[in-house]
Write a sequence for this structure.
């Protein structure tokens, strides 16, 4: 089986992250120039979604079509998984039909189980620990808006130390960008992934900090990033979380503490009026819709690399 590669954690592309960003830029330029680019002609991607999705689903599906291939949307309720067929059997069977599997799962262990048993590449479309494809697109967006010198940039993340935050910490450490996450006590990033980010940061020259003060975190930031306070699967904690995170809103007053030319990012979907105000998300510093568009270009780079060996 040897050669197949999975993208479960952003750590899986540690040595190829910059290469993927360059590939995304080349693919985006070709798309904008109207030049066809179809390295995945005749290939199929199975997309298995345990949770809702707008951007990930549409960008993977449209990306596959634009690359000359085809994507199938599979919901566990309609698959035999919903009736108890195991993930490992599903992985083995899907591998006989398709050239890659994208999986959005509640649990990291399930993504790992699918990857272990599939003979085709498995791409993590978000789990409880990480959102690697999101952060590849985010780094590409930062590159476009702030130039290539990641080592001179500082990203401030404000809010929940969740899947997106974990992948951002790792991604920032890999490219050498400084990152400070401001999270309330008890809602810090995953300790193991934070440790991995810190170890990588030592090599790359980045600085990774976790604090509880949003104002201190955004000072001198070039990028201010936030995500929802209640991730998918945490709906029961909504009331509690809205109280805990109240002071972690990205609003104009907070943004005033960042650099004047700081950009604002959010992976979306946003809960306007909670983690971010209308004024900020619709304001001149927001690049959230460029960021959302770049999911498509980044996805095409990931798919070309993992399914096409580009
Ligand atoms: N950012 C993101 O992954 O969005 P979706 O949940 O809509 O896919
Ligand atoms: N942290 C959010 C990201 C959604 C794209 C969630 O897991 O729901």
């Amino acid at each position: 089986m040897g050669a197949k590669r999975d993208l479960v954690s952003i750590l899986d592309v540690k040595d190829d992250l910059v290469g993927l960003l360059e590939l995304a830029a080349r693919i985006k330029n070709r798309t904008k120039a109207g030049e066809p680019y179809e390295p995945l002609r005749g290939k199929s991607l199975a997309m298995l979604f345990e949770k809702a999705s707008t951007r990930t689903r549409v960008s993977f599906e449209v990306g596959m079509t634009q690359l000359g291939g085809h994507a199938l949307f599979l919901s566990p309720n309609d698959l035999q998984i919903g009736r108890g067929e195991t993930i490992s059997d599903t992985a083995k069977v899907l591998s006989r039909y398709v050239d890659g599997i994208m999986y959005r799962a509640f649990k990291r262990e399930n993504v790992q189980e699918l990857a272990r048993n599939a003979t085709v590449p498995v791409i993590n479309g978000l789990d409880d620990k990480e959102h690697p494809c999101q952060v590849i697109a985010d780094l590409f967006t930062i590159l476009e808006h702030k130039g290539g010198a990641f080592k001179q940039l500082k990203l401030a993340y404000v809010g929940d130390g969740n899947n997106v935050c974990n992948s951002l910490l790792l991604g920032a450490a890999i490219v050498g960008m400084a990152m400070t996450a401001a999270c309330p006590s008890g809602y810090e990033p995953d300790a193991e992934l934070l440790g991995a980010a810190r170890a990588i940061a030592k090599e790359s020259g980045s600085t990774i900090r976790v604090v509880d003060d949003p104002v201190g975190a955004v000072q001198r930031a070039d990028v201010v990033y936030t995500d929802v306070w209640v991730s998918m699967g945490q709906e029961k904690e909504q009331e509690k979380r809205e109280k805990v995170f109240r002071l972690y809103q990205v609003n104009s007053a907070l943004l005033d503490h960042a650099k004047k030319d700081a950009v604002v990012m959010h992976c979306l979907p946003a809960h306007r009026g909670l983690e971010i105000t209308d004024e900020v998300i619709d304001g001149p510093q927001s690049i959230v819709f460029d960021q959302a568009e770049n999911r498509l270009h980044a996805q095409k780079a990931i798919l070309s690399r993992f399914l096409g060996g580009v």
